Amino acid sequence: LSVGQLEEARRALDGPLFADVAGDADVSFEFFPPKTDKMEAAMWEAVQTLAPLGPRFVSVTYGAGGTTRDRTHGTVARIARETSVPAAAHLTCVEASRDEVDAVAREYWAAGVRHIVALRGDPPTLGDKFVPHPEGYASAADLVAGLKRLHPFEISVAAYPEAHPEAASASADIDNLKRKLDAGATRALTQFFFEPETFFRFRDAAAAAGIGAEIVPGILPVSNFAQTQKFAGMCGAAIPDWMGRLFDGLDAHPAARQLVAATIAGELCRRLYAGGVRHFHFYTLNRAELSYAICHLLGLRPKAEETRAAA
Ligand code: FAD
């Protein structure tokens, strides 16, 4: 950031709530493949609510060890077919041979999907150590290179502002991110975090390591605090003490909890915006309302064309 931009950022931080937000942010939304018809209906309602905001893309996760292969494919294909939003498919290489992974990627290409979120993945049993498949891709960087050899996919990869739990060090993890981008990925989507400084420090460290690609903060609007604590423990994301205090005593007050959740995530996004962020990736958990509210605070409004398509 230049001195001018820093001044601008400071003014935005001190200024009135969201007054400096110009509606110029891009967003993307992440969903997980639903397990039941009821979950499918809920997810689809969320997609239709969020699609009119004109996201850059929506992505669909891939279950641990490839367990949702068909459901991920079905969900991505439906989004591609029934909305005008570009759909991205997550793909992991854990517990699969190169041929198996390549076959899934080829199916995506044939179905018109041009964007893959390429990940190593984790073993299906929690706590097991990752061991590459003997005939598989050894890491996400390896997978990115493999996908690029197949087709000219647009590829996003994962990044960890608080370092991946298995990384030898924060700088080794940034070297790994650089390898993934050098192998052909276009952007990094981050693990969730709750302090804007965590993201800014990471962005600075990545820039110092020569990374010029877009690093998109992953935003998890938290309404289930206990579940988030569990997730965060598994992926090495810190939960600040103030967050526990804010959710304390709200278990029996779901509406108040939602308002607190929107305030926390909205404030995080406002401060990221003030620091120059113009693309936010939302972990929607297949629900629209919190992500929609935060996008609204960021100045996004439904676009007529996408609204018609979603209807
Ligand atoms: P990698 O980039 O391969 O890194 C894994 C670890 O190995 C890191 O610690 C890295 O530093 C280290 N490493 C890699 N190569 C080297 C090397 N050559 N030398 C030294 N160290 C190395 N999981 C799913 O199962 N399905 C999903 O859909 C999914 N979506 C995700 C989306 C996002 C935005 C994020 C942030 C994560 C997602 N994950 C998903 C989780 C992800 O699969 C796990 O975090 C996994 O443990 C690591 O995947 P990766 O792609 O970051 O791996």
TrEMBL record:
<protein>
    <recommendedName>
        <fullName>Methylenetetrahydrofolate reductase</fullName>
        <ecNumber>1.5.1.54</ecNumber>
    </recommendedName>
</protein>
<keyword id="KW-0560">Oxidoreductase</keyword>
<dbReference type="GO" id="GO:0009086">
    <property type="term" value="P:methionine biosynthetic process"/>
</dbReference>
<keyword id="KW-0285">Flavoprotein</keyword>
<dbReference type="GO" id="GO:0106312">
    <property type="term" value="F:methylenetetrahydrofolate reductase (NADH) activity"/>
</dbReference>
<dbReference type="GO" id="GO:0005829">
    <property type="term" value="C:cytosol"/>
</dbReference>
<comment type="pathway">
    <text>One-carbon metabolism; tetrahydrofolate interconversion.</text>
</comment>
<comment type="similarity">
    <text>Belongs to the methylenetetrahydrofolate reductase family.</text>
</comment>
<dbReference type="GO" id="GO:0071949">
    <property type="term" value="F:FAD binding"/>
</dbReference>
<dbReference type="Pfam" id="PF02219">
    <property type="entry name" value="MTHFR"/>
</dbReference>
<dbReference type="GO" id="GO:0035999">
    <property type="term" value="P:tetrahydrofolate interconversion"/>
</dbReference>
<keyword id="KW-0520">NAD</keyword>
<comment type="pathway">
    <text>Amino-acid biosynthesis; L-methionine biosynthesis via de novo pathway.</text>
</comment>
<dbReference type="InterPro" id="IPR004620">
    <property type="entry name" value="MTHF_reductase_bac"/>
</dbReference>
<keyword id="KW-0274">FAD</keyword>
<dbReference type="InterPro" id="IPR003171">
    <property type="entry name" value="Mehydrof_redctse-like"/>
</dbReference>
<dbReference type="InterPro" id="IPR029041">
    <property type="entry name" value="FAD-linked_oxidoreductase-like"/>
</dbReference>
<keyword id="KW-0486">Methionine biosynthesis</keyword>
<keyword id="KW-0028">Amino-acid biosynthesis</keyword>
